[in-house]
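Internal ticket - ligand job 342, guanosine-5'-monophosphate:
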Amino acid sequence: MILKRFEALQSFLATPRKIVVVGHRNPDGDAMGSTLALSHYLKKKNHTVHVVVPNEYPSFLHWLPGSKKTYRFDMQNSQSQRVIRESEIIFLLDFNALHRVGSDMQNTLKAYPNDFVLVDHHQQPDEFKYMYSDPSMCSTCEMVYHFIDKLGDTKLIDRDIATCLYTGIMTDTGSFRFRSTTSATHRIIANLIDKGAENDRIHSNVYDSNSYGRLQLLGQSLNNLKALPQYNTAYITLSEDEKSAFNFEKGDTEGVVNYALSLSDVSLAAIFIEDREQQIIKISFRSKGSFSVNQFARDHFDGGGHDNAAGGRSELSLIKTVEKFVDLLPKYQQEIVQSYEK
Ligand code: 5GP
Ligand code: MN
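stdout (structure tokens):
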């Protein structure tokens, strides 16, 4: 755990400030939950706060309290640039390096003359003036809870803050089932329910909001599932044509990789998704046990993340990317096979 210049930050925040809170590109439940929760909290402390996200976030998060007031850097560029320019400090939430916001927004942040505060649970963070980094945490939302607690302000956690934090903890832990979920996580969740988070409604809003097309696309994904039993590995592919056949929308493939990991005896799972707009193949990796997909994604697919959940990209074709992945497996066979024992 790194906690850098916390007291100095505390003094800085003792007077009302103009603050921007930023999440990563393709924001997920943890990115949206943590940025919104922190902004609600900082507003209660009399700061002027704007949340800026690089691009669109999935429709199953649109109901989150405050999400309508966020600025999208790609679509509301001048407003985003203005609040960034006018701000005295920027919080970076749920990512560990500036490039994770995408190149346009990265350029703006690189030119930012004031200081950054990083609050994040990914490994190997870049250096910033103020830092709270803890890769043992299940989610950035859990860290925002601790951050508020460290400032002595858990009494300020209201229904909206609790709802946002609950959502991010729930989505980043696969509904409280991943290894990163601890007894402390459950205690925080209990506190959040006491503060007004309605667990049944949050689960339903996030997980029971599928479009017909999304379920059809899941069907296509499962049809495309390939298992490689000798490597305890399974993967899914989705081409751009398949995505458009089922009216693909942002977020529709979220969680699909977990179906590959749910196969009995599979310790390494991947999904390869063609993205014609960015001209890349976007990859998600998941593992059970000791095999680090963070390291694997860093070493071979220009990515990173956590030990058991990471992402990456490839500029090869879909077929060539899958070939590259399959060709790497013999080298890792032992590590993958020994990764997880029941
Ligand atoms: P997902 O597969 O759900 O997109 O991402 C899994 C985890 O890996 C998340 O924590 C995410 O922030 C991280 N991640 C996803 N894609 C990338 C990437 O291209 N680079 C890095 N460094 N991390 C990524
Ligand atoms: Mn996260």
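Auto-summary: The pocket of manganese (II) ion (ligand 2) is lined by residues 30, 94, 121, 139-140, 172 (CB under 6 Å). The first strand starts at residue 2 and ends at 4.
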